[in-house]
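Holo prediction. Input below; ligand is adenosine-5'-diphosphate.
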Amino acid sequence: MTNGGAALLEFRDVWVEYGDKVVLERVNLAIEAGEFVSVVGPSGAGKSTFLRLILGQEGPSRGQVLLDDTPLRPECSPDRGVVFQRYSVFPHLTALGNVLFGLECAQAPLAARLFGGARRKARNEAAAMLEAVGLGHSLDVYPAQMSGGMQQRLAVAQALVKHPRVLLLDEPFGALDPGIRLDMHELVGRLWQEHRLTVVMVTHDITEAFKLGTRVLAFDKRRHDPHAPNRYGATATYDVKLDRKAKAAGPPPELMRSEPAPVL
Ligand code: ADP
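Structure of the complex:
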């Protein structure tokens, strides 16, 4: 449950280490319900690791990640939906089958199948979700028969049908042609508003980050030891909440460079 203005998702001094390699350090963040958080940063800065922490695919080495003030257990759960750049959907299931599967996983975590009225209700819900993402005429189509854009629409429907508290997007439009990417921006922006979603999206595209986000986080290393590159991890070095005016103005020039930030 949301708790009167408190953060939906909170990172408290979170570190992620693999052996002697520090990937993330001292991450302190609070994300409120309804935010659309874009995450940018150079390759290897721990953006996907950050998403995996929220998804529950892994736990922090130190610190805490809290959802509604409760520490997240390192396991996937229907309160978090995710769309990856590719391969989010099952090739052997139709569009409807894919979305129904998402729903069954959420409603019947022990993999029990739905029957009778519950099954019909689930089917209607899945079909409505497919309609909402523009696939209302493709219920019986398999992913292999779909374009990349359609597959991503399907992946969004599969993630959203569970009504997740947080929708995670990991470079969801990175493999799409520019025109299709714009269509997807429109779709995700609309779904975010209509479903009052909380979104955390990793992207390499800084313009996309500022166009869709209400907040932009940049991950990078604040400190660097040239003799021991694994010694320090990245953290959120830049955290800006955008208002409409700032969004219209686009990204600030210091974030438009393609090189990593100078090491402090
Ligand atoms: P980004 O998404 O910003 O490109 P990642 O989160 O994928 O960065 O990776 C951050 C760093 O963590 C990389 O250097 C990567 O090699 C390392 N890393 C990620 N997962 C593991 C793992 N399971 N074991 C060791 N190193 C890992």
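The domain at 1-79+164-264 is CATH 3.40.50.300 (Rossmann fold). That is the main takeaway for now.
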